[in-house]
Design a protein that fits this description.
- This is AIM24 family protein.
- This protein is mainly beta.
- The protein has three helices and twelve strands.
- The chain has a single domain, classed as 4-Layer Sandwich (Double-stranded beta-helix).
- Strands 1, 2, 3, 4, 5, 6, 7, 8, 9, 10, 11 and 12 form a twelve-stranded antiparallel sheet that branches.
- It is elongated.
- The N and C termini lie far apart (44 Å).
Length: 210
């Protein structure tokens, strides 16, 4: 159903089914399509719409029909994620589209959200199907195992999936350690068994100014 055309355009082939996507991200379609704007309410969409810290409103649309839709957003790189009953946690600004059958909700991120200035909640996607997430530059997928926990700069974090626990640590930061100053006030530590997606370009964060 989901396929990439190049690295920055998502093509979704539909045969009467539906897809949920970031509002305004559709760039073209063929066939017969119906569009519905989704704003808050059931299935956890309110968590996708409300950004508690910044007050930014993010709307989601449902596309249903026969044919192909193409989606893109600000020339971001697009990465396909397959879910087989597991759970994906992704920053809402990095979520482009999901199968309509996937359940979306939110999880409280606490300190990480406050340090990033990116909202206090992260979007969750669960079930069987595909999701498309965006990154500034080609995303890197890093493995977390019980023997090898992973520490990530919050400005580079995009998403994680699997049986992964996250915690937050402060102190010496990446940039401060190398004498560059202005580094992140916190780092994210991942433990367990799963995958973490990071981007090669860091977003601006509140902590970066501390």
């Amino acid at each position: 159903m989901f396929r990439l055309q190049g690295s920055k355009v998502l093509a979704v082939d539909m045969t009467g089914d539906a897809v949920k996507a970031k509002n305004g991200s559709m760039v073209a379609y063929d066939g017969q399509m119906a569009f519905k704007k989704l704003t808050g309410g059931g299935e956890g969409l309110r968590g996708m719409v409300t950004r508690r810290l910044t007050g930014e409103q993010m709307t989601v649309m449902e596309v249903r029909g026969q044919g192909t839709c193409w989606f893109a957003d600000r020339a971001s790189e697009i990465n396909l994620v397959s879910l087989r009953g597991d759970r994906l946690c992704v920053e809402s600004s990095n979520l482009l589209a999901t199968d309509a059958g996937l359940r979306t909700g939110t999880t409280f991120t606490g300190l990480r959200g406050a340090s990033q200035g990116n909202g206090l909640f992260t979007t969750t996607v669960e079930g069987h199907g595909q999701a498309a997430i965006m990154s500034d530059g080609p995303a890197v997928v890093l493995r977390v195992s019980p023997q090898y926990p992973l520490v990530v700069d919050p400005g580079a974090y995009i998403a994680h999936q699997g049986d992964v626990r996250q915690s937050f640590q402060s102190g010496v930061t990446f940039r401060t350690f190398f004498g560059e100053g202005g580094g992140e006030a916190f780092q994210i530590r991942f433990e367990g068994d799963g995958l973490v997606y990071v981007q090669p370009s860091e977003r601006n964060t509140i902590a970066g100014d501390l």
